[in-house]
Amino acid sequence: MTIEAFAPAKINLTLHVTGQRADGYHLLDSLVVFADVGDRIRFVPAPSKRIDVSGPFSVGVPTDDRNLIWRAADLAGVTGHFSLEKNLPHGAGIGGGSSDAAAVLRLLGAEAHALALGADVPVCLLDVPQRMRGIGEDVTPVGAVPALDMVLVNPGVHVPTPEVFARLRQKENAGMDARLGWPDVAAFKDWLAAQRNDLQTPAASGNPAIPAALSALKGAEIVRMSGSGATCFGIYPDAQTAEVAADRIAQKQPRWWVRAVRTVGWS
Ligand code: C5P
Asked: What is the predicted pLDDT for the residue at 145?
């Protein structure tokens, strides 16, 4: 028996930091969507536990209890062989290990353990657009978010999340506009353009590759960083325009990871 799961790239369309708890964790207000690119996981139940990694980003992925897949299996009390096809850059602000962990919890029916594996794991349990609050544990689906054609650009720098949070000077910022309902795609994009990723400035300072990625996406309708970086996204009017932009960026920057994707939404 083989079970397969898809672990899609997670994109923070917005990431507002609204405060900091006494334990140091930050309070967030984020609109999260998922793309049609991601890692693939296969699982075969067996008496022992093993992780094999393949794919373009397999180098450096731990195959022991440092891998969230291993810890998800432990929490679920399950053993077996996992094959991970690592298509997403890691430490990149687009889910990576969190999405892998969520996919494994889902396939093992152990979703209740999500928060124990990281603040980003609960939102990755579902692939629909969601609003994420608290430190990541408070997630609600948001029905009206349209499917978006976008280009993801990762300039190949690894940005440690705790460092980015530590560099954020102003911890108490306004949350998202609470209405989260839009009559059409244009109204959604107008709203989105006025929101923020509060981690973008602290991530970019000291990482010139991030402003470089953002400026490579110039010409898109909305350009922003996802998560704590370094992946940035540009939203385009349609899939063809996104493909053309992705080709142009990839040609100029052959070492960057560049993908035209479509996010899961209602159209
Ligand atoms: O929970 P996770 O392992 O994804 O978080 C990595 C680090 O990011 C935490 O150790 C913490 O420093 C920071 N973080 C935070 N506030 C959050 C999520 C993460 O300060 N809501």
From this structure: 96
Peptide bond into 230 cis (omega under 30): yes
Is the shortest distance between the CB of 161 and ligand 1 below 6 Å?
Answer: yes
Domains, the chain, ordered by start: 3-141 (3.30.230.10), 149-262 (3.30.70.890)
Residue 228 CA to residue 207 CA, distance in Å, equals 12
- Residue 267: predicted pLDDT: 56
pLDDT at residue 178 above 80?
Answer: no
- Write down the catalytic residue from 29, 100, 120, 127: 120
At 75-121, the pLDDT tens digits run 999 999 999 999 999 989 999 999 999 999 999 999 999 999 999 99
Asked if residues 256 and 231 have their Cβ atoms less than 8 Å apart, the reply is: no
| C-beta of 38 in contact with ligand 1 (< 6 A) | no
